[in-house]
Amino acid sequence: MVTHAERSEATRSALLDAGRRLFAERGYAAVSVNDIAEAAGVTTGALYHQFAGKRDLFGAVYSDLVKGVWALVLEARASHAQPSLLADCEAYLDSCANPAFNRITIDGPTVLGSDQVLDEAQAMVEASLTEARDRGEIVTTPTILARMLAAALKEAAMTIATADDPAAARDAARESARQLIAGLSAQ
């Protein structure tokens, strides 16, 4: 027998999946609560039971996306013989090639506000900076540096997402990240 908690989690998961797909395909403004509920196979009441509204659902989708990017960064770090801050940044920039990431990233600052978007990125960047410091790659990990690097990476993501030639924009972002990180080097 399925419990109430299991049904609730299944509904939440279906809404997150539908929201992610629709926000990535159409953009936040072109998706209605009805569209999401229909795609998830639930009522709008079920959506409002799980989330305060479309913006709240988008925030959960965005947070899941950030967690997925962080998982990719950790996976890339684990696969490198010699992990580095640059490799972490490259793994983040590689995620910018995902069209779903692009569309949701473009809408993120407008829907959630720049501060929330940067807060999510800053947490990832601060963890990468701490790892780099612990490896002796950089000397310090001040919070302001994490915020600045998060802002730079978010701008790079937006540039890649909106570029006529995303591959060229990705290459330019990689070179810029290399130069920026070289300035942080402990050597």
Which helices and strands, and how do they pair?
Elements: H1 4-26, H2 33-40, H3 44-50, H4 54-79, H5 85-95, H6 99-112, H7 114-134, H8 143-162, H9 166-182
Structure description:
With 187 residues, the chain is mainly alpha-helical. It has 2 domains: 1-51, Homeodomain-like (Arc Repressor Mutant, subunit A, Orthogonal Bundle), CATH 1.10.10; 60-182, Tetracycline Repressor, domain 2 (Orthogonal Bundle). Helix content is 79%, strand content 0%. It is built from 9 helices and no strands. The chain has helices spanning 4-26, 33-40, 44-50, 54-79, 85-95, 99-112, 114-134, 143-162, 166-182. It is elongated.
Quick recap:
The chain is mainly alpha-helical. Helices cover about 80% and strands about 0% of the residues. Helix 1 (about 5-25) crosses helix 2 and helix 6 (about 100-110) packs across helix 8 (about 145-160).
**CATH-assigned fold name of the largest domain:** Tetracycline Repressor, domain 2
Radius of gyration: 18 Å
CATH class category of the largest domain: Mainly Alpha
| CATH architecture grouping of the largest domain | Orthogonal Bundle
Number of strands: 0
Described by its quaternary structure, the protein is single chain
Ends distance: 61 Å
- Mean pLDDT across the residues is 90
**How many helices does DSSP assign?**
9
Top keywords for this entry?
187 residues; Tetracycline Repressor, domain 2; 9 helices
